[in-house]
């Protein structure tokens, strides 16, 4: 057996960081977040599992709502916002579940945990992936929503509501999806855990959407402020606790 | 100072105590083969050393750094190959390695990947999705993933699962870092023949304790087989192969 090589002498906590290596490292948080998102998109482009499931679910629920309610002009404003957010959130749950199941397969989540990456980077990367998948679903679903509910195709005040609602959903959803992915009943557990916590975002999104569709912009702006506040709160909580959720 | 040092490691899962005070050291440049029957605690030990789970008691020092202070500074210095491959089935070999290279922030990733893929005999299949690979090919790619960032410490949990006898040079090649330095390798296996062939030092884990450790050169293969059978109270799980044959060849 060869003699053990001397290691760097110094303060105990810094000893290992002085180990020599032939490889150059410079991991950056932004680079790592982009790598996670690119990887998720590359896998999705190949399989189309997440988008297909989300899109089909969202369209089906809009169709069912469309047939279930007799949509007169006066009832659209009351029903459409709820129908839209039911479609978006339930489709989002499907996407989140699938997104983390892919990490669980073959122990990839452990592979990520072994990398020199801050846990917050993992959280932001997975959250950003969820936002992108949901945005892709919404880009296709929103025009169909307008057609089914006889609304103008482009309702500009609705866009910030959808953006903030989606970010809030992804901020909480990523946290709970990471929590539930280690359980056997994850498909059931995720919505049970998620929806009670998500209710402020859902209520804000539905109310803001209703106000935007009714053309009441001042009311919509108030609800948007609430939505933005909850987005920030959930994002900060997610960053603070993700390390404990993803750990042992 | 040791590259890897486990001191009095204990780990319980509920009422079941898997590790009952494990003391084990690996020096830089040393290849230690850890043998043990199923359920002995080998995988749990590797996962604790890798910082994936925390011990119930005892401590782990990696290059003198206590893991209890946080695993973050040690991650770039450890390569881990576990029971699972840590590979994304829907991505190609090249995409998988590129992703991990980005996570490690490697500068010369393309060069490292090309070298490893050629070394593992996967260059021709580098653009095929991993799900189309055989078990042995996935295992080779998992080894390439563990070696990608050229870690001085390598923790291998039954890396020979699914590998044919011709893969032994791959494992031997894994001992050496890019600059020619030898790594510290802890290797668990049920394959006594391969473990003895590669190891500088051998240890037996049974019932959550290290019941034997010693220099490889001090024992003949047959002597070690008898020792293993005595400590583990059963015959070795891999029958002694006839000369010129291996378990995988026979299979």
H/E element order of chain B:
EEEHEEEHHHEHEHEEHH
Annotation field: number of helices of chain A: 9
Task: Estimate the strand proportion of chain B.
Answer: 15-25%
Largest interface: which pair? A-B, 48 and 60 residues
Categorize the overall geometry of chain A. globular
Structural class from helices and strands of chain A? mainly alpha
Report the major sheet of chain B: 6 strands, mixed
Q: Indicate the mean pLDDT of chain A.
A: 86
- Helix coverage percent of chain B: 25-40%
Helicity level of chain A: over 70%
As residue ranges, the low-confidence spans of chain A are 1-14
Number of strands of chain B: 10
Strand order, main sheet of chain B: write it out: 6-7-8-3-9-10
Largest sheet descriptor of chain A: none
Strand element count of chain A: 0
List keywords for this structure.
heterodimer; A: 248 residues; mainly alpha; disordered N terminus; B: 251 residues; alpha/beta; six-stranded mixed sheet; four-stranded antiparallel sheet; disordered C terminus
Structure description:
The complex is a heterodimer of chains A (248) and B (251). With 248 residues, chain A is mainly α. In chain A, 78% of the residues lie in helices and 0% in strands. Chain A has nine helices and no strands. In chain A, helix 2 crosses helix 6 and helix 4 packs parallel to helix 7. Chain B is built from eight helices and ten strands. In chain B, the strands form two sheets. Chain B has a six-stranded mixed beta sheet with strand order 6-7-8-3-9-10, sandwiched between helices. A four-stranded antiparallel beta sheet of chain B has the order 2-1-4-5, covered by helices on one side. In chain B, strand 7, helix 5 and strand 8 form a beta-alpha-beta unit. The chains are: A mainly alpha (248), B alpha/beta (251). Chains A and B meet through helix 1, helix 2 and helix 5 of A and strand 5 and helix 2 of B.
């Amino acid at each position: 057996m060869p003699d053990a090589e001397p290691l760097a002498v110094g303060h105990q906590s810094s000893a290992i960081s002085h180990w020599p290596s032939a490889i150059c490292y410079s991991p950056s948080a932004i680079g790592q977040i982009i790598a996670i998102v690119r990887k998720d998109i590359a896998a999705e482009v190949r399989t189309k599992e997440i988008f297909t499931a989300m899109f089909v679910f969202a369209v089906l629920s809009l169709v069912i709502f469309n047939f279930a309610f007799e949509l007169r002009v006066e009832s659209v404003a009351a029903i459409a916002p709820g129908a839209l957010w039911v479609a978006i959130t339930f489709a989002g749950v499907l996407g989140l579940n699938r997104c983390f199941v892919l990490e669980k397969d073959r122990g990839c989540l452990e592979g990520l945990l072994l990398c020199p990456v801050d846990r917050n980077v993992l959280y932001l990367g997975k959250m950003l992936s969820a936002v992108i998948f949901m945005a892709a679903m919404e880009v296709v679903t929103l025009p169909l929503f307008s057609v089914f509910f006889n609304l103008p195709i482009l309702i500009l005040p609705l866009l910030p509501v959808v953006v903030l609602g989606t970010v809030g959903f992804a901020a909480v959803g990523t946290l709970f999806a990471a929590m539930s992915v280690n359980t056997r009943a994850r498909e059931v557990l995720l919505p049970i855990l998620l929806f009670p916590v998500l209710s402020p975002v859902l209520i804000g999104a539905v109310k803001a959407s209703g106000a935007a569709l009714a053309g009441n912009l001042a009311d919509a702006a108030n609800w948007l402020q609430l939505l933005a506040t909850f987005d920030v709160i959930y994002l900060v909580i997610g960053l603070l606790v993700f390390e404990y959720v993803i750990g042992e | 100072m040791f590259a890897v040092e486990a001191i009095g490691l204990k780990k319980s899962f509920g009422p079941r105590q898997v590790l009952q005070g494990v003391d084990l050291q690996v020096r830089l440049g040393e290849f230690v083969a850890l043998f043990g029957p199923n359920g002995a605690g080998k995988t749990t030990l590797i996962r604790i050393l890798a910082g994936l789970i925390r011990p119930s008691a005892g401590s782990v020092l990696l290059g003198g750094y206590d893991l209890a202070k946080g695993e973050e500074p040690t991650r770039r210095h450890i390569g881990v190959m576990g029971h699972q491959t840590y590979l994304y089935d829907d991505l190609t070999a090249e995409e998988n390695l590129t992703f991990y290279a980005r996570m490690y922030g490697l500068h010369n990733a393309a060069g490292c990947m090309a070298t490893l893929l050629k070394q593992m005999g996967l260059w021709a299949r580098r653009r095929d999705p991993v799900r189309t690979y055989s078990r042995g090919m996935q295992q080779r790619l998992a080894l390439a993933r563990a070696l990608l960032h050229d870690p001085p410490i390598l923790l291998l949990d039954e890396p020979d699962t699914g590998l044919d006898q011709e893969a032994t040079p791959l494992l031997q090649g894994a001992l050496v870092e890019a600059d020619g330095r030898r790594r510290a390798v802890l290797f668990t296996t049920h394959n006594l023949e391969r473990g003895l062939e590669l190891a500088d030092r051998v240890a037996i884990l049974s019932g959550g304790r290290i019941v034997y450790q010693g220099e490889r050169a001090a024992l003949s293969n047959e002597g070690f087989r008898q020792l293993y059978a005595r400590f583990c109270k059963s015959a070795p799980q891999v029958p002694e192969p006839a000369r010129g044959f291996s378990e995988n060849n026979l299979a």
